[in-house]
Amino acid sequence: MTRKAISRKLPNSQPPSLPAISHGPAEENTPAPSVHSGASDERPASQSSTLKGSDGDSVNFVPKRVLKREIEDLSLRPKRSRARAPPRAGEAAQKIKTLWSPEEEPPKFKGDPSRTFEPRNLKIDQTEVLIKQPETRPISQEQLVAEVKGIYAGLVMVESKCIEVDNAQSSTTESSPKMNNEQWQALIALHRMLLHEHHDFFLASQHPSASPALRRLASKYAMPARMWRHGIHSFLELLRHRLPASLEHMLNFIYLAYSMMALLYETVPTFEDTWIECLGDLGRYRMAIEDDDLNDREVWTSVSRHWYSKASDKAPTTGRLYHHLAILARPNALQQLFYYSKSLCVPIPFLSARESIMTLFEPHLNGSPTRLQEIDAAFVRAHGILFSGRNPEQLAPSVDEFIGSLDNHIGRTTRRWMESGYYIGIALGCSLLEYGSESNVLMREIKSGARTDDTDTTMQGVEAAAPSQRFLDALDFTCRTHDVVFRRFGDPSVTPYLHVTLSFLHHLLKLPAAMAHIESKIPWKLISLMLNTLVGVCSDFDKVESDEFSRNEKDSPRPLPDDFAQRGLLWVEKYDQTKVEEDSKNKGYYPDDWFTAAKIDDEERYFEVASMMEERQDRCLWLGNRIAATGMWLTYDKNLRQFRVAQRYDVEIANLPTDSDTGSDTATPSSEWGREDGADVEMPDA
């Protein structure tokens, strides 16, 4: 019978309860009920009594003394109180008398004499047990070669099948019926198998015990490129052309390919550059198909930009990477123009950018409304006309609109124009190169590396090819911009623009034929006045007057944001990229370790800090000294620490600031720096 049934049979329907256990003496005659349902009682009959119920069930009662004895057997004796009786007066006095004092002998230890205090045996008490390294079986070269051959044979079979299926589906994209879920899953499984085969091949061929010949197999047979082309890219293009029906399958495959590339990036560092660019491409695919969640789109844009920036660090002269960064720069039109132009003006240009850049120019050339500021729209439109040659009648109005608004725009944006300054300066430099055109007069000189041994040779008598009208328009646009910016004396917002301009001129110092096309238009006098304003705040003249690159030798290199922006461009790289040795004539603007030794996170590269202002000013002064060392355009007096211009460039400039504005006396020419007959300037002996 259950406990509930027994309870119903008890009086008042109340279940029996055990008596409270107290620390006082128990009454022997008080019964303690114990309920049982049909089970036999194992206690002796003398210690329990049974009460019969109306239905024949028994209710056993245990005497209280038996219960007390059972509790004692379970060691549940009552605890002793923690309170102690107060000591007697005599005992307290006796204890006080026996206290030890410093004058007495130290008390003897009354503990167990068998206990000792010897140091523990560390050999016996080992709390950590070392686990042996798993045994590995060495593999011979013959076994490794056989393994690689076997993997490659299976890889070729799967690769052929992928090529066949992708080509068949791509050729019938318009006419073929929609593929069902099972067919998409089969295609994904096929390409996943190819990726796994490539992974096995790379692990085996790049094994630590592999011979050099075995390691070269991946490069010899272009395995990274084949993996991307046949295993990932062709299938992604097939999925892209089947959107939106294939959206879910495309997402799954992008995640699959991204995880595989991330694994190869960690395990096969030999082709790290390829894996980085592939990760950037996959991030760009993921960004492009995200239309619903703007946050996800921005996240994948940042992921792709991170990988492309990392790839451009390893290959700064490759224009393809800057083209990809230009696509990710939307909707920042000024930054897009900077990256597109840079992709065409590096030693390894990306010629396909000539088609992609038109997606930026088309809305401005067609007169379509844009969300850009008027000054930025005018600047982009002017470059679109210079690049494409379309709508030439709109060039002058666009340039006038930009030049007319530039000074007020810089004054309103202040420090925010620093980033725009080097974007604009680099874009103007690329326009002078006609965006990497092989027929450009400057490009031909830069590519050929024509230089003269005598750096003091004047520019007269140098034969130069006739410049195109497009180059002349770009030169006028550039110099008019110089004329506005270089009048803002003492404005730190324009120093990045000044730095980019001086680095461009510094590169042309040993290219007389190239300099001959632009020297007469450059506002040298404004540049000298701008440099003199920087002289007043210079704290280390030894550094800026030295022949070596201006840098702090004590600390690790800290490139400026405009340094990262210029890196890889034709006017900061070596003249001859094929020459390994470096001499005074084949020397780039930056030292070889300027970027590689820098310890800067990707997110902090274009972050302007207060300490950079002094570094940039010193760099501009150093470039000014290098240009002044020739004595043909600028001059520098180390005693007075003042820049001046050569006599033939000391022209009157309208609305020129006074001497108090510039902190120099260069506004009035001095007879000791040149003659009024137009002869060449004679530099005083140092």
UniProtKB/TrEMBL annotation:
GO cellular component: telomerase holoenzyme complex
InterPro entries the UniProt entry points to: DNA/RNA-bd_Est1-type, Est1/Ebs1-like, TPR-like_helical_dom_sf
Coiled coil spans: none
Disordered: annotated segments: 1-118, 656-686
A Gene Ontology BP annotation from the UniProt entry: nuclear-transcribed mRNA catabolic process, nonsense-mediated decay
Record domain DNA/RNA-binding: where: 305-392
Compositional bias segments (type: Basic and acidic residues): 105-118
Superkingdom classification of source: Eukaryota
The protein, known as: Telomerase-binding protein EST1A
Bias-annotated ranges (Polar residues): 657-671
Pfam families on file: EST1_DNA_bind
SUPFAM superfamilies: TPR-like (SSF48452)
GO molecular function terms listed in the Swiss-Prot or TrEMBL record: telomerase RNA binding; telomeric DNA binding
